[in-house]
Batch of 4 targets.
Target 1
Amino acid sequence: MDYEKNIKEALSKVLGKKEEILLEKPKNLEFGDYAFPCFSLAGTYKKNPSQIALEISEKLNKTKIKGVSKINPAGPYINFIVNKENLTNEIISEIFSKKTKIVSKNKKSKEKVMIEFSQANTHKAFHVGHIRGTSMGESLARIMENQGIAVIRANYQGDTGMHVAKWLWCYLKYHKKEKLKNDESWIANIYVDAVKKLAGDETGELQKEVNEINLKLESKKDKKLNELWKKTRLISLQALEKIYKELNTKFNVYFFENQVEKEGKDIAKMLVTKNIAKIDDKATIIDLKEQGLGVWILLRGDGSVLYSAKDLVLAMKKFEKYKVDKSIYVVADEQKLHFQQLFKTLELMKFKDIKKCKHLEFGLVRLPEGKMSSRTGDNILYSNFKKEIVEYAKEEIKKRDSKIGEKELEKRAIVIAIAAIKYSMLKQDPQKVIVFDKEESLNFEGNTGPYLLYSYARASSIIKKAKIKINLKIKLEKLEDKEINLIKKLGEFKEVTEQAYKNLDPSTIANYSFELSQSFNEFYHFYPVLTAEDKIKQQRLAIVEAFRTVLKQSLGLLGIDVLEEM
């Protein structure tokens, strides 16, 4: 039953309003399930909002609103109390049907959306800061798929350019005797070493050597260099794929910078002929100062192509080849100017799909001492960070189960570690800069990934100990306040997923998961389940199973796996 719709229709009749009526949900259950504030009517009725609430309530009480058991004026508000027995039974019934399950896709849409995210470059570190964009992109893809949208997950990786030239230069000059390793930290350390050595290059001679390698890399004429690039590119990509698998992240399409280099040069030259770009001190630039966007460089003075020109090619490829209806770039807000310049240039080029392009920004991840950087090495490598959290998780698991086998211990610890890492990123407002607190993310209590997994495992333990088949069609009766509270929170799941989609914000679902777990733990502490009399025991087991169902789906939308035991 759509209680909100019924209340709005009744209010519209009494008020004679054609525009949409907005209802609120009181935080305190004692006030009611829905509330209508009367402040906006004071000007029309020329009366005190409290008096208006009283008069409208009297009129509403003369008519019967389907599903509403009581209408109470409270100051400037009209509170509506719905039939709790009907409401709770409807919610539980819907949860146990296939309607709310992720795999069912509620409404199949014809819309096709490409989400480009992660963009981890080869020959560089994958650090804690990268986890945010990767987790956010995967979660958004799942949220959209839950709304029936066809999603193409895309990863655009920098596998060529100046950063690769620096890595190859440093390896050839200082690390040539070292065997190539499929290891994230080894790859990252060579890049950091290159940056540090170039920082001390007072004469500029070392940078000239790097520039020469960059030109050779673009031309692909140096066979030995090209072969080294291919081998090191491959081990970089293999190291990244291991990380993506651990983070429950997958991609349908991979774009690489080397694939759009030639077209990037061509498009830069074409823009010069159309007077959109110009040559300035040998470099090819687009002057966007009049638009307040500065100067955008497409080609360096030596003719090498920058990722600005490559991004123009990529934008067009997405729509030409994949026929998408929308292209979303999930990229940190430090690239905001770049995307403004990109979109403005596409607009000047009269690119017909420019309005379908969106830069979805997210804030950076910082350490307490400042910004992370793969250039300076002032960051936490994902591999090191994961290992540390896995070890911590193992200690926590052993406290609860001292007889656990090594294989099971490793399995659980990895799931807990990934939940801790991903949830710590996704629970935040995407726009907010995160100062990463390792101790907080590892906590098994509070608003953390491990706490949510523990809540799910506790519910699973109750079901397992019950050793009876749960009646999923049971009719709930005479429920206690905290039972009603929990069921109502379960009933918000569909609305929360729609809100997360509308705002492109996974934190909506993350924080809902926490609030839901809090409601469950309150219910669990106040009311016995396994020792209750048969009828009540069956009801409470059904509520516990409904909680497990919804929390698992909610965490699934965040790309977080659950554990049956902690």
Note: Residues 102-106 have pLDDT under 50 and may be disordered.
Target 2
Amino acid sequence: MHRRLIPHFSAFSLLLGVLFLAASFTPSLIPRTSMMQGVLGGVVMALGYLAGRILELLWNAADMPVLHGGPRRVGFRLLWAMALALLAWSLWYGQTWQNDLRQRMRVEPVQDAHILQVLLITAVAFAVLFLVGHIVALFSSFVRHRLYRIMPERRANVLGFLVVALVLFVVTRDGLLDNVINFLDTTFETAQDLFASAPPGPTEARFVGSPDSLVDWEAMGQPGRNFITSGPDAEAIAAFTGRPALDPIRVYVGRANADTPQERAELALDELKRLGAFDRKVLIVTSPTGTGWMDPGSHDPVEYMHDGDIATVAVQYSYMQSPFALMFETRTGLDQATATLAVIHDYWKTLPEDDRPRFYVHGLSLGAWSSMYATNLFRLVDDPIDGAFWAGPPFPSDFWNRVQNARNPGSPWIKPRIGRGSFIRYASRADDGSAGAAPWGDMRIMFLQYPSDAIVFFEPLSLFRKPVWMSEPPGDGVSPYLRFVPVVTQFQLALDMAVSTLVPPGYGHSYYSQDYIGPWVEVTAPENWTPEDTERLKKHCDNGFQAGCSNE
């Protein structure tokens, strides 16, 4: 009994774990810190060990011959020597690969102590996971031996497996739900604190949240208040363009401003009417990110382009960060975007065609997904919108996937060509989407995506299948050393998604003003705008990620 309590290593499984660990040092899309690489190494090594244990169990269950001598065999020792040599080689070159990727993204190289730190963190992470697995194995053994008393061994093994699986599911499910509920509670309390501590609202009638507004300032939430009170005014725009300008209209409705998606959408429409938004030349319906955040790097530049003769509207659907909103409030975002676009577009269609603003939709990240979902066939055919601009579209986006798979033969997955480019184009850090084999048609759709953005290019089936883009020449900011390794690559890309904004602007999921400007010019076609104006605006807005270009 006491021997069973002491963890026992399987030499074969540990060998497989070491091979997985060696593969984890290969680069993916985002540079890794010592902590990130160590945790990834520990997790992947544990997965390799688990895979080895499963293979051993299947081998034994099939009554396959057992090799005599085990780990003491010369051939087995040779395999271990080769595995350790591969690990040493991966450790050595892993630092070279990481520094190559860091140089491409203008990130500081790793320090000399990087390898030692990684090995220590890997060992700790693997030890913790191995201990958890050993506890599960002890529990499984306990259940099976109790069942042996009342039924045949084979039947007890199967039933024991099902009992352990059920117990683990219940325990982890309850723990997960507890954590989710606690997180939601904390998020809601944080939102309430924001409401209670809201600064004084604007007094001018032209602002949402003013005494004349239909939208309550305190319930709007911090992301909405920031959006409403930031951005360039008429004076700043005129100073830049040298032409007369208007104060841009910005409308934002917080989740707490009304009870249902439909009510929030109708409130947004009423506020647009109050401010005279349908008398402007351009109207943009934007879907925010999970927290309700609106990227100033996108919205500030387009207001300069149109001399402030523009209105932008957004409605919040969540308080949570986008990854959590994606997992736990998926329907909420889709329902809100659909209601917002339907209500505003249906009213817009009733206006005379020669006396209404040009209509565009926009979204970043999770906002792009919900905006695409809302922009269904009826918005594109029945009195269609004028265009759409979606940045960093998440990989589950159905519309984006259908467009990607309709790309011209021979065009790359990371930057496809669709037809002759008169309807849909792509932009990136190094390309503003202005090049097309044919001029733009009546409707213009643009995708902005970086080749190093795992949120865009994650492939759920990459556990055992190489993603399409990995078979193509590497894109801007992507390491040429990147290689596909079954299982390992899946976890590397999952980690990349989690840290995809922790890189300089222009890489990963860090979209910023410099790269919004060209696509906005292409999609909205501002009057009297020249390439020189584009370059001047880029310099004016050269403040980096999330900075905007309000009044510099």
Note: Residues 2-63+72-150 form one domain.
Target 3
Amino acid sequence: MCGITGIVGHQINNSSSHSAIKKMNDAIAHRGPNSEGLWNDEHCFFGHRRLSIIDLSEAGQQPFISQDARYILIYNGEIYNYKDIKLELQRAEHGTKNLPYIFKTDTDTEVLLAAYIRWGIDCVKRFNGMFAFAVWDAAEQKLVIARDRMGIKPLYYHFKDNVLSFASEIRALVHSGLIDKKINLKSVAEYMQYATVHAPNTILQDVMMLMPGHCIEFDIKASSFNISQYWNINDFTKSKEELSYKETCQKVNELLTTSVERRLVADVPFGAFLSGGIDSSAIVGLMSKVSSEKVQTFNVSFDEGEFSEAKYAKQIAGKFNTEHHEIKLTPNDFLKQLPEALSAIDHPSGDGPNSYIVSKATKQAGITMALSGLGGDELFAGYDIFKRYYELEKKGWLNIVPGKGIAGKLLAAKKKSVQGDKTAEILNLDTINGFNAYPINRKLFNKNDYQALLKENYIADNFIKNIIKKSETDKKHVLSRVSLFEIQTYMQNVLLRDADQMSMAVALEVRVPFLDYKLVEFVLSVNDEYKYPHTPKKLLTDSLGDLLPDNIVNRPKMGFTLPWKEWLKGELKDFCEENMIQFSKRTFVNNYAVLSTWNRFLNNDPKISWSRVWHIVILNNWINTHQIEC
């Protein structure tokens, strides 16, 4: 787990590139406090920051150079099945000229490079892990970059005038001096709608994010730049084999247990986030089952009972005899750390500070790697939106109800809430179904509100709608379709982005067993009959047998909540007001609409949630921090 940076091109200024790659590496020093590596030839400059997890010796230093000096690798992530691949590479490949590879280290880094040398770019299809890596072929002057299937590890890039610069974080490109630090106004429109910018776009103009399961191949001699896809999540939403419910549960248990076991390989102290909910409790239970060591668990709790899940976490810790760490925070503790959390944000995110505080507390307890329950809700229909979508798909009769649009407006006027506005927008659709309603359900600002904030009608790229169009399933896999939506929108562009940027801000590696691609492929293929959540995440909990207590399975879903509404009107009021006023003066927004949003929030308008205000504050603060041109 590390950070990578690179500059590649046929005609690049060596002296300026030397300076740029050093600035890029320095900008992500937090990702790799153990060591720094720089390498270059005439056309390629690589940088690396190392956080040592597997093989802590100097043998794992990067950039990693092949034994014949032809290939140079920089790599961020972990290959969990690297030992299996290593055994395969140590054998001759029958029917070919491939001889056994003689390894010099015990690192997964060398296994990755050896796999590339033997199989070329197709090596990615053999990897089970989270990764973003780049390989430079000095002989052929070709670069290959690849990102893992689920998008756990990030890779941002800028390609202009036949020069490619890339990094694990946007801030590295911002500090490089190689890009124009200009805001992308289409992305601002998307951010206003969905509280994020969906890959491949970013908040910056001309800075892109490589999509999950994709590769870049850049041949600088031929001036050829191509992006290809090696894995498509949409391919797995069809039943592959007829299994009984019992057999399906056994398969889920087997795949998840194997996933957890693979993710316990580390040469540093590790533990698990434990909220006391189903997902984190399942991970901790399975860790205790397969680990020979006592599991360390971490729960961040608040004295306020309304916001604390500590008692549930204690129960699970007791059941599995973990070494439990309850980290108590007061709201004041959180507020004191908020400035550093805000400075750690690499891409604007309103949810990021929560992840930062949890990660920092865990790191300070002496842990370098932690397992997380992220992904369980998306796979096993854990959100309310799964039921809402499923039921809406069954209500085709709504499309023939006379005056449904008028009814929606009346309902919105009566409810006077964000949800009321969303209901009205859904009822006003030409065709009401889950397909059309999903983007509305995920909106932060409705169409009229976000358009009022911006001076021009900047049309977002409709990434969510494009994802939905590509995510076709049959009638037996409606819930899998919602999983596809959730994974490719909210999970990849909010949850995973936050998990990476905030944990790596404190040099903590987070692993996510629910996102093992083999588990994902199988669960997506399971039909609705087995997955419908009659009880919370029924397929998952049934697959675990008696691993979890009933009160953990059936307790209300809480999540990591904080009293943000009260803070924005109290301790954070001056900070928010300053940012709202500054944002109102941006050339691309309507001054009155921004200030009106702030005043309506202060006056308790039920249609203006704290989240709407906070995301504007975060965006403006990020623009100021990184001195972005607007």
Note: The domain at 2-182+205-230 is CATH 3.60.20.10 (Glutamine Phosphoribosylpyrophosphate, subunit 1, domain 1).
Target 4
Amino acid sequence: MAQVFARQKAYLCAHFRKFMISVNNVTLAYGKRVLFDEVNINFVKGNCYGVIGANGAGKSTFLKIISGEIEPNKGSVDITPGERMAVLNQNQFGFDEETVLNTVMMGHKKMWQVMHERDAIYAKEDFSEADGIKAGELEEQFGEMGGYTAESDAATFLSELGVKDDLHYMQMKDIGANLKVRVLLAQALFGNPDILLLDEPTNNLDVETIGWLENFLADYQNIVLVVSHDRHFLDAVCTHVADVDKMKIKVYTGNYSFWYESSQLAARQASDKNKKQEEKKKDLLEFIARFSANASKSKQATSRKKALDKLVFEDITASNRKYPGIIFKQEREVGNEILKVEGLSKSLDGKLLFSKLNFDIQKNQKIAFISRDPLALTTFFEVINGRIKADGGLYEWGTTITPAYLPNDNTEYFEGSNLNLMDWLRQFVPPYVRDVDEDFLRGFLGKMLFSGDEILKKTTVLSGGEKVRCMLSKMMIQNPNVLILDEPTNHLDLESIIAFNDSMIAFSGIVLFTTHDHQFMQTVANRIIEITPKGMIDKLMTYDEYLADDRVKEQREEMYR
């Protein structure tokens, strides 16, 4: 009996060393809406899992189930005893009365608790022998948890995330929202947690900070679950993809691009009924081998390549995702004069956003506008769309131009409207279009995945992603030859982002845009214009070339100095 018990104990110890998180028969429903139905999945130490799925599939909810914030209707989440979990806090106001530095250190709750318990003992006037023994025990715990270097460690995290030293002792309520998200990210990363849950960690981060986070997570030895709509980020950090689809979650080896391309290949294989099974297997194995070889170029090279080498072709299945049809057709091609900007400048509330903007646009150009100040970009787009007046300078559109604008904030297009989608879209049909019947409108809405009775849905109940898809229907119906896009991927799921990205690559007209989506920027833009309070940098190159150019780096530092 003792030997049996010993074997069982050894097995359990080995099991827990391998599986840090075990999700068992988890079911969650809100009324008749079932989000998860008997989900069974394990998350293993040393891996980073990108949690993907359509908007509303339950990605963020799943992270909350793992963290214990939400209790499932059935099933359990078992975590190896003694492991510490950290969650990226989404409440920017939850630490307003704390200093920035203390907010970070509070991420290690046990250490923070021990530190305060120890300090309370030392503050006693009647310090006893028992207090001394207890304080000694706490000092030992504090040291084991890295408490003696906690403050310097927290300061290092903050500095590397772009929060300057002079802000570290300020209260959270006195710093900007864009800095608060960085502090909360530092809080989650602080103290090397065993399990790290990150929901959209790249929101409001600049490209340099995102790059730092990519490198940090690529070297991270514990378990990470991350929800993100940034494909470049997912590719850089993830060893696995956890696909939330149809109330289930399935884990696939590889990063997001591997999952996407393999699922597309599997879908084509499934539809090709004439192809022999042996030929299909050969194609899939060649595909795995190609990605396995490319994995050596990744920051996650070793673990990802080992995992891919173990794949068999049966592991690859077709995705059930639906992709919208974003298709822009030009009513007419642009002429030689497109847009000319001379000496454009603008300030808001006494703050200079941009000045000395001078450029013109040529045919076949797709221009990414970037800035360290997102307000400058939105204001610039509002100016050239005639919605805000510039303080100085001028701009002039060519006579052949038919622009379509996707603003960052689309509230005005839906506010006060109680129309159904069909009648809402009807408002924006150009006057030269004839025979605007239900089938005509239904076609544009259908491309954006509004089908059946959904076209009778009221605009007042639309989600953020649905509103953007409506705006895209509005733009497509205008047959523009110039597209102006301010953060076009905001609120969209990965399927819509991919469709939008592919559409912009294929579009033969002019595109002026800004986005935080690295892959969108890199694959669409052939010209980069960075606008600053001191002027602008203008380069005919891709985004990655721009970031890597040493002369550009020097110019940028001078512009923002």
Note: Residues 277-294 form the longest helix (18 residues).
